[in-house]
Amino acid sequence: MKKSGATRRALLGGLGAGVAGATLLKSQQDPSRDSTRVPGMDELKTVVEFEAVMYAKVPRETYTYTAYGSEGEFTLRRNRQAFDWVELVPRAMVDVSSVKTATQTLGTPMNYPMMVSPSAVHGPLYRDGEMATHQGAAAASATPMIISANASFPVDKIAAAAARPIWWQLYPQEDMDHTRDLLDRALAAGAKAIAMTVDQQASYYERSLHDRNLNAAPLGRAGRAGGGRGAAAAAASNPYRVSPGRLWYSWEYADQVHKMLSVPLLVKGVLTGEDAKAFVDHGFDGIYVSNHGGRSLDYDPSTLEVLTEVVDAVPARVPVLFDGGIRSGSDILKALALGAKAVCLGRAIRWGLGAYGPAGVQRVLEILQAELVMAMAQTGRPDLASIDRTLVRTHFR
Q1: Confidence class of residue 90 from pLDDT cuts 50, 70 and 90?
Q2: 327 DSSP β-pair partners
Q3: Distance CA 240, CA 360 (A)
Q4: Which of 5, 76, 175, 346 could form a cystine bridge with 294, CB 3.0-4.6 A?
């Protein structure tokens, strides 16, 4: 008797093929992800377009780590909204046939008044992590990079990836020997300045909680899944939802760090003129206005709103850096008009890296550089020295 060709394996295979092509299966996919086609990099004309490409390419938890702000994300949104409350006031009859953007900050030369801000764990965004970020930044008119203390790769390896200036970010460590070791490594790698972060960043992010049923665990300190467990541990050990490792900061520690350095020391995380003045009085060489990209205390003010207060509180010789919500060249111009010496770029750089690797970082910076030149020309400001507060009208709410 001849056996039937319809074996169980063949039947199951046919059933699987049918299910795979069924309309029902499509309903399980993320409706916000358009997977039909990823555009070429040369098709993107603005920085915000890189976010969608990065979102399409990386796992949900990697995107969420870049995107979220503290708690309900009021400050994250306000950082961006504040730029809408500042108008640019152009000058007529000014020769802007040549626009000059070169400057220097604490001895570091810059072709444009912008830097890559310190942000953690670039490895999940692209295989070469911060090394690729440094390469992309260096290719974009030698843009300096501030390397995060929580980078995916060692500082010496990142620094060696491109022959361009680097700074390094320090998170205070109670063990002074450990602090000295970290600083020694950064300095040996060629760090031209140290930015010490002092804000009390929270460990509680509602956006991560929304993803908890989607098999998307938040990224932890070293880029591994498990940030949720760390947050729970922090909450169990104290009632503040802040890592216990940040609750002890003191002026004594800051003074000791300053004595260890032969390069400039900045403070990152300043939001008031009072704090800015105090840090200058304690010998800090620069102030970095930041609310951790909206990842510190929710309902902090936006960084743009407090920028002039901070600038006015410190001597003119003390440079003030700025980050928070920058998405265009006109945003950069507004921050410069309100007193920033240079701006630092965080999420926009991560979008470029996650979307296209080092070429994406380079392209994001080149777009912002071109937009800044265009905005300066359109407002009649031929160089950085001509940018002042008469360039803007503010309507902060």
Answers
A1: very high
A2: none
A3: 38
A4: 76
Helices and strands counted in the chain (H then E): 16, 12
Q: What length does the chain have?
A: 397
In the set 122, 210, 258, 292, the catalytic residue is 292
Of the chain, the end-to-end C-alpha distance in Å amounts to 87
Domain locations in the chain as residue ranges: 49-394
Determine contact, residues 130/159, Cβ cutoff 8 Å.
no
How many other β-carbons are positioned within 10 Å of the β-carbon of residue 41? 18
Query: What are residue 205's phi and psi, to 5 degrees?
Result: -130, 115
Looking up tokens 């049918």 gives 18
Residue 292 annotated as catalytic: yes
User: Any residues with CB less than 8 A from the CB of 281 and at least 6 apart, and which?
Assistant: none
Facing residues of 288 across strands? 268, 321
Q: And the tokens for 320? A: 């003030």
Share of the chain above pLDDT 90, in %: 75
- Which residues is 197 bridged to in the sheet? 268
pLDDT digits (tens, 9 = 90+) for 300-319: 999 999 999 999 999 999 99
Q: Specify whether the CB–CB gap between 367 and 356 falls below 8 A.
A: no
Cβ-based neighbours of 56, under 8 Å, separated by 6 or more:
33, 34, 35, 38
Q: How far apart are CA 271 and CA 336, in angstroms?
A: 17
Contact 289, 322 (CB under 8 A): yes
What is the signed CA dihedral for 201, 207, 208, 209, rounded to 10 degrees?
Answer: 110
CATH code of domain 49-394: 3.20.20.70
Indicate the Cα dihedral angle 283, 171, 132, 348, nearest 10°.
Answer: -80
**CA within 13 Å, CB half, 362:** 16
Residues 6+ apart with CB under 8 A from 27: none
Pick the more confident residue, 95 or 37.
95
Q: What is the DSSP letter of 109?
A: E
Go through 64-100 and write b for each residue having 16 or more CB atoms within 10 A of its CB, e for each that does not.
bbbbbbbbebebbebbbebbebbeeeeeeeeebeebe
